[in-house]
């Protein structure tokens, strides 16, 4: 490194597991938080949180490349009531550092003072020989100037460190010199210090340090020894004495490793948690017991209760006087009584479990933290946390606000004993507010219940439909907003068993409530009226009724005459104005309508969504003599699998598109989009709420924009419990055991559901009402999530996502240009989009895009944004072909995200706008900072998922199956190894099932790269995807947009080893003239495999042939939108296997493709030679008919040219063998600052890293050769294109009428670039960034002739890095993201003096 000041490599925030927690209690002073502060360790950082304001105050880097394992703190001083001074000890691995934290409250003109924080390093202790397991502070003695820190190490030793002299003054080693998994210290001075050590032999040794000359006899008590030690001389003189360890007891009982120990406040009890999934309570006696053999210590007696309940290893524990808290790998935190009974279980973390738990007895605050990066704060109810007597009243007043009412309907007292057929019971409940409840019964009564704070309930009988007719359905249109009409605040609609409807207007602000207008009419025949629905957007004059067969009727309540009595029943002013016919004959469960957009959306009992037209002329028409029968516009079959749709709503009427959100019994929230031009519903996303088996509805909370995608609360059921779940913080707000959703129930949420919620349910004849309502003045919202939740498992891939590739061209380092989005794929199958922005909270937010089928691991992910256009003269469009018009917002310039993983799943996501500015228009600047400046915001929606059919592997693998399994093919199956047909005839699969099952577990995609190509004439956009599979196959796939149709394009063969890394280069081809006219592109794929080879593949001919054929197929009407992601409950079995014959036929050569569309989509089945495509849905609707007509036409188009229909196999353009001595883990290609080489070519640099710890740089260019020189071209030997780099310098290649040359210009190798395997690499042609398992990020300068020279390196906090990506966010400024077990951002900047060497590319 020549000049250290020329560049700077700085590690920023780490987003990963939380490894340490510690409370910081401030004295009760003005301006300071009444709740304790929280210190959290993550990576090499310490985060400081204010629990009262629920926000992060500051983050501090305390260790370099070492994870923080523990934190201890002690309040030192409080000056003038506005400054706190706290000593903090942080340890990790073999390091301990001592800091001073200064917290100052600076008053401002505003109500809230500004918090000023300063962390100063006091001491950095020498590196210990063994790992540090625990530290604690001794009580400071002013008289003796004693300031000691105690450090416990894994070799079962204790060290005393004097903080004044910065020296070690005492070291005591236990004679039991075994290694430890855990240690916990207790005591504030040496005389009463107790050490609990968890050994590798599953035992606990409790010991203390005593002077050698004062060792008590074997039979003496520890209490007497402590009295003797109190006579030691004061000061440091007694530390100069020789000390030894005195073992008090050995505790045996665990059957696994002891991971954590915790002392009670008085040192009389010890809690241990273990690998055996149990927690044990040990009473520590004062006596030291020995066996007959001198010096041998035995167990002190029987242990206390053994706590069983966790389903996996337990990582942490803490003990208070009245309760015990444990946290484990099963993602649960459990609260136990000291008698061993489990009092509460909290399960809100994901992934590999809860790592740390902490409890504050004064405020009953429970903090949990885990592998998923989340820190969650709960407030336990007072019955669980029995605080000290002097604090009991305060804690109860603060927490115990849940009111439980148990009431019965007025006539229930007439029946005693068990219920019979004549008993009156509740059929329906509806809240209007926190103290108002409507109740209907089977005897035809409608009641109103008024709840009082005293616990009393006042009943009012409103109407009585009939003596013998039960009320079977009820709906409420409440007063939330202005009064509905003529003083009426609530409209109640009830339907009875005779098919009669009764609608009543209630003036509920009177006491008792008064019945206003009442409408009665016959809505159907007996036992055929099952549902009634108001729609708030239509108002009280329109009401729907539903029958068991899916028929929906719309009724209009006419305005009564002025002379009509307010309480008289009106039966002749109700008109049936429309009747909606379902496509499925299944009962409608929920609906929503919009008079402005003239649409009605319904959900039925079997998960289907039906959309009807709702013409304004029908609603405002004056003729009521005849009803109109309306058929559906379109439908979506199985949006929630086969589970019932429980709620539906729509919003976002932009660009002729309507956003629809539905909830159902599959535990999912589904998002769909209705295109008015196409009259089609397409699935755009899904949120699976894993804690709920049924999601009944979704709420956005108070003062939220009506954006369906920004849902905050999910309300539903899990088994027999009612649950309100916070979707943002992933925390459980309410859980009430109620017996399940089938019981009559109702709920009401206030502006903040965490503080205001009501729930009522019926059990037997009793109505149970749970009301939690906190006044405005005492609002402290719990539970809370202090830190964003991230992946709960390891990440294998990441990439920067930038909508505009030119952000920051001015070179300014503003916050907008430095704010970035990162897409990550995880082992658990989830794909997340995380936003990084500078400031205190660098990791601003993280949203879950979705998950792969069955939770299959995501192995690779890549963004696709730039569109490459094929010149018009290459398409050769036939005469008469019409231009196809795009109809979606992002059709012209789509931004895609492609993820691949296990089970050979390819999932595509498309960018969509998710925010609304202040004017209500779509905007990219949806998030505002304190200065009012917006940050770019983005969101992706699910586009399509592709999965292979069973036995759909590469046909050349069939011969390998014979050799491995040892069986022969059936004689009826004639497999031609030379054939390449893409449209095989449908024949019965003859291979034995066991062959496919052996390879089924090995089917997983390992790498992906993709690019977009557009035909300017047909305006078709195709995403070409190259994927490498673990069975050593490489294939080229195509996704046509917006049709969502998947095609098999080509096979890249032969491939002897699995491909681990893929890159592509789109090289423009210019005519060899001075005009520099571009005549096309060369599409080159580059692969790195496990045998260390790097191969180049020319995809140009296959891409152009596919675009030619795709432009002749009218796919604009075949949008494959009738498909939902195959994940979550209700997905009908996940993968749907089809047994298709794989017998190919040899066809004449020609460019063609094979289309493969998933079954069950409702659009297309297989479009293949000799087979017919059928609609999966038999319903006769206009949409289905149009789809069937198009299917036949598309099939005929394919069959007309079937003679040329075959799959093509692409041989490698060239293979460079032995580049790496083992697997090629990562590749990255970049042009050298667009520096044009001679002969109209472009110079490219290919960087690779492998398991051999080496980095390679390969420079090459591509040049179009004159046609006249065709006779002089010597093409490379295609039969044996594999060479070493030294053996080839120039490669000529012929493609149809174009001849071009690829030249390999230089090759540089850094043998030991890292100390372990290289996992990630990135370059822009000037700077190269790499990472490896040595947990380093290294920066290299790419010099002349590809020479790599290391300029800087940084130890990062991410254990086991797996992937790296980078972006230029300004002139000479880069952001580097590294992912593995967590994710960290690293920033690299170059000084202005290096402009000659700096990067000119920007992001």
Question: Which terms would index this structure?
Answer:
tRNA processing; 1403 residues; 8-stranded mixed beta sheet; disordered C terminus; repeat; 5-stranded mixed beta sheet; WD40/YVTN_repeat-like_dom_sf; mainly beta; 6% helix; WD repeat; tRNA_Anticodon_Mtase-Reg
What would you note in describing this structure?
Its main location: cytoplasm. It comes from Vitis rotundifolia (Muscadine grape). One of its GO terms (biological process) is tRNA methylation. This is WD repeat-containing protein 6. With 1403 residues, this protein is mainly beta. Among the domains are: 114 residues, no CATH class; 181 residues, YVTN repeat-like/Quinoprotein amine dehydrogenase (Methylamine Dehydrogenase, Chain H, 7 Propeller); 97 residues, no CATH class; 176 residues, no CATH class. Strands 65, 71, 72, 73, 74, 78, 79 and 80 form an eight-stranded mixed β-sheet that branches. A hairpin with a 4-residue loop joins β44 and β45. The chain starts with 6 loop residues before the first strand and ends in a 13-residue tail after the last strand.
